[in-house]
């Protein structure tokens, strides 16, 4: 306890590292648990006792490819009402294939990816909402909106909104505002009267997307479901109790929440890993500084176990203290994340804040275990100090044999990791190559950490020759200080190395993906313009017609994803193959390499093409016939007219047929709408056509018109945003690494107190002393950065070789990013040295010399 309190400042820095890591873990758990609670309450509140819906309805509520949700006949309601135990049954209409805009054509939907939901106002909606202003819609010109959307877009009663659906556009005036009784995570919700919802959203009256059934008093949901199922008999229906519907809704968002949760926990794990180096360094230096003290304790009777135990108990105190603060900080972090999500449109209420008992327990256990494990090696080293050490100067004797063994192990691990990376880069299959990549990353990382002290000697000398020599004697002293204890320098640099290695790796992968996609677009895409929603919504017919009527356009190509079961001549059957129905002009919009046959013939009547991989797997050749069973349509026998190469990123492994062929087997009302469209400008009129297309689509803000330059920039921006999020999460590990540099320098200054006093006595000024410490910090930071960036570029290059198997064939090293990170590392070193350098400069010369 005395030792712990005697080094409060040093322990505080180590505790901050534990605090940050535990806070990130607990914050992630609280945040994702709160999101789960929010969605659970929402799904529970909106689910009726039993829901009857079409069996083919999308489980996750995604927009239908036809633009119209699957529906049930209204006559089913009467059959449901006759079932025993039914208190009430009512039809509901709901669609997510809509866009709602104001008079200025501004989209009233969420900007976070949450859907816009349109439907009819029912008694079941009263479970989750209440009308707080105005009244429910009573006719075709009236609508009601949710309060969150009204507040966000400054809507009020009397405002008119236009709803865009596949059946056409229609305008209604806001007559009411309804407020959620539970938290709405961000969806925009609009209501119409039942007749209007049926006509405008489903295209026909007498249809409902679901039937909401309420149980009579004393009837359980399970019993009610059985009774309704018996009343309906067999048919294309899906019945769910309130619990089953809520579970299905939770599953639909669960995969996204799980990915986010485990990704954030992964970054927290990286921060913990970096924190281990900080703790090891801290306790190693504290043990070294107490060598004489420990030797004296051994001389008067302390056993090795007692010395070992005393150091581990210090670590335990540190872990408990840092973890308790980290748990509290984690709750605060979760609240901050909720506020951040609220600022970008995803509402999460602090009233739903969920702190499960497992969260603080997980944080405490992780923090304490990691801290104690990290302190074990220094504690074991302390226990080995002999009583004779009390007669020597402070400092543990170097173990040359251990250093040699460490270097050999490090070199072996690095060599094995390099071999795994090489094998991964030369792998012919992505699945096996990814396993080798993971193994190579782990082995090279551990190898570099273990061999760090050996590398420090050479790398620090090279960096010093380039950076420090210009500072004369002060620079040379900074170099010698960094080289004085290679193990310490290696461990401090390794903490920074981990975060920067991941930054470099992801930068290489991201840049290579953008370069590969750009190269592929230049090579394959012949269309001048690409039109899409970017949200999975189909292009409504009125928008498609506006595109086709645009002046200056040579042609517009329709492009539809077809759901079909394809049977090859060898009998192999696959569901939902990537079958695309397109206009013949798509051959001009996408340049596909043909292995055999004629692609133009594939757009003929009852013809198709297949990809090379599929053709090889099923022994398909030009002239064979394939059986294609279209969803919601008939079964066709299509002749294979061409086999296309799969050496592409655009429409990889796609099968093509003519839209006319598909339409002859699929009823018009079940034919998918365009998910994307392509256009070609008249010769020499690309600029004018681009402006005209944008004007044509102004009434439809949910769609984007992009030329190839726009498309490339959009891709670059999307990858850039993803990388920025990752870099932000990695910043935690880098902050912990900076704390490690601060702690190492601060303890190093204490360790060299007498030496500093002697240097000051023979003429070293305070300014020179501070510069020496700052330069030492810079060279340590640059050492870690050089190792990290080199390691990360190796990982990234190997990953790109694997991506090349999937068509990402261009390797691009983002040198501006790499150089910027390397230079920024020098400033990180300067920043980390500010406090230690300032404290060293304030030392009293005589007191420093008198220090024992």
From TrEMBL:
Keyword Glycoprotein: no
Topology relative to the membrane: Multi-pass membrane protein
Span of domain ABC3 transporter permease C-terminal: 267-387, 729-844
Pfam families for this protein: FtsX, MacB_PCD
Chief subcellular location: membrane
Keywords attached to this entry: Cell membrane, Membrane, Transmembrane, Transmembrane helix
Record-linked InterPro entries: ABC3_permease_C, MacB_PCD, Macrolide_Exporter_MacB
Compartments where found: Cell membrane
Keyword Coiled coil among record annotations: no
Domain MacB-like periplasmic core span(s) in chain numbering: 12-230, 492-690
Region Disordered, annotated ranges: 52-71
Chain segments annotated as transmembrane: 262-288, 311-337, 357-379, 400-423, 435-468, 489-509, 725-750, 775-795, 815-835
Family: Belongs to the ABC-4 integral membrane protein family.
Protein name per UniProt: Membrane protein
Organism: Streptomyces violascens
């Amino acid at each position: 306890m005395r030792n712990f309190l005697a080094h409060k400042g040093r322990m505080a820095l180590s505790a901050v590292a534990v605090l940050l890591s535990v806070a990130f873990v607990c914050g992630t758990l609280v945040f994702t648990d709160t999101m789960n609670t929010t969605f659970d309450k929402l799904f529970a509140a909106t689910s009726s006792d039993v829901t009857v819906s079409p069996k083919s309805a999308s489980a996750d509520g995604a927009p239908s490819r036809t633009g119209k949700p699957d529906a049930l006949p209204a006559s089913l309601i009467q059959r449901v009402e006759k079932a025993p135990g039914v208190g009430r049954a009512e039809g509901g209409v709901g669609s997510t294939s809509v866009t709602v805009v104001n008079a200025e054509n501004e989209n009233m939907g969420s900007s976070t990816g949450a859907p816009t939901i349109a439907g009819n106002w029912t008694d079941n909606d009263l479970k989750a909402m209440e009308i707080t202003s105005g009244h429910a819609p009573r006719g075709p010109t009236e609508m009601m909106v949710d309060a969150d959307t009204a507040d966000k877009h400054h809507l009020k009663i009397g405002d008119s909104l236009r709803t865009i659906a596949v059946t056409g556009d229609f305008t209604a005036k806001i007559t009411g505002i309804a407020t959620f009784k539970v938290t709405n995570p961000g969806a925009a919700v609009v209501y119409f009267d039942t007749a209007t919802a049926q006509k405008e959203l489903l295209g026909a009256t007498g249809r409902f997307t679901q039937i909401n059934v309420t149980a009579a008093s004393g009837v359980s949901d399970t019993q009610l479901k059985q009774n309704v199922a018996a009343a309906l008999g067999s048919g294309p229906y899906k019945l769910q109790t309130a619990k089953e519907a809520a579970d299905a809704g939770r599953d639909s968002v669960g995969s996204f929440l799980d990915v986010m949760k485990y990704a954030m926990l992964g970054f927290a794990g990286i921060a913990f890993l970096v924190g281990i180096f900080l703790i090891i360094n801290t306790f190693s230096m504290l043990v070294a500084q107490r060598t004489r003290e420990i030797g004296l304790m051994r001389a008067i009777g302390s056993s090795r176990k007692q010395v070992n135990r005393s150091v581990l108990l210090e670590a335990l105190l540190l872990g408990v203290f840092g973890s308790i603060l980290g748990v509290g900080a984690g709750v605060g972090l979760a609240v901050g994340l909720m506020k951040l999500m609220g600022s970008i449109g995803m509402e999460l209420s602090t009233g739903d804040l969920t702190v499960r008992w497992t969260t603080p327990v997980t944080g405490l256990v992780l923090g304490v275990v990691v801290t104690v494990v990290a302190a074990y090696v220094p504690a074991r080293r302390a226990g080995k100090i002999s009583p004779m050490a009390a007669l020597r100067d402070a400092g543990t004797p170097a173990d040359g044999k251990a250093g040699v063994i460490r270097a050999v192990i490090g070199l072996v691990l690095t060599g094995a990791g390099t071999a795994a990376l090489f094998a991964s880069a030369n792998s012919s299959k992505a699945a096996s190559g990814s396993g080798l990549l993971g193994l190579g990353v782990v082995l090279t990382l551990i190898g570099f950490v273990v061999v760090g002290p050996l590398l420090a000697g050479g790398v620090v000398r090279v960096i010093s020759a380039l950076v420090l020599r210009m500072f004369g004697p002060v620079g040379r002293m900074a170099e010698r200080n960094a080289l004085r204890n290679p193990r310490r320098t290696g461990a401090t640099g390794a903490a920074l190395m981990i975060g920067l290695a991941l930054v470099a790796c992801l930068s290489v992968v991201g840049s290579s993906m953008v370069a590969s996609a750009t190269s592929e677009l230049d090579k394959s895409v012949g269309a001048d313009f690409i039109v899409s929603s970017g949200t999975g919504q189909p292009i409504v017919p009125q928008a498609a017609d506006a595109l086709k009527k645009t002046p200056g356009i040579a042609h517009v190509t329709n492009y539809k994803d077809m759901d079909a079961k394809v049977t090859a001549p060898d009998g192999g059957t696959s569901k939902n193959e990537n079958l695309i129905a397109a206009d013949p002009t798509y051959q001009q919009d996408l340049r596909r390499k043909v292995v055999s046959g004629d692609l133009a013939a594939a757009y003929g009547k009852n013809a198709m093409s297949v990809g090379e991989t599929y053709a090889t797997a099923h022994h398909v050749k030009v002239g064979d016939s394939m059986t294609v069973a279209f969803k919601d349509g008939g079964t066709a026998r299509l002749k294979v007219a061409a086999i296309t190469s799969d050496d592409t990123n655009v429409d990889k492994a796609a099968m093509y047929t003519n839209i006319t062929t598909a339409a002859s087997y699929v009823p018009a009302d079940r034919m998918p709408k365009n998910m994307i469209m392509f256009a070609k400008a008249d010769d020499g009129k690309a600029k004018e056509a681009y402006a005209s297309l944008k004007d044509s689509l102004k009434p439809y803000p949910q769609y984007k018109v992009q030329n190839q330059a726009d498309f490339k920039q959009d891709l670059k921006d999307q990858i850039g945003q993803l990388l920025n999020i990752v870099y932000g999460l990695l910043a935690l590990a880098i902050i912990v690494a900076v704390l490690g540099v601060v702690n190492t320098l601060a303890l190093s200054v204490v360790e060299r107190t007498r030496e500093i006093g002697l240097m000051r006595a023979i003429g070293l000024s305070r300014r020179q002393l501070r510069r020496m410490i700052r330069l030492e910090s810079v060279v340590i930071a640059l050492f870690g950065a050089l190792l990290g960036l080199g390691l990360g570029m190796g990982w990234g290059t190997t990953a790109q070789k694997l991506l090349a198997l999937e068509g990402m064939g261009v390797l691009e090293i983002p040198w501006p990013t790499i150089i910027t990170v390397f230079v920024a590392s020098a400033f990180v070193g300067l920043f980390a040295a500010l406090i230690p350098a300032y404290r060293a400069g304030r030392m009293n010369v005589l007191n420093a010399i008198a220090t024992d």
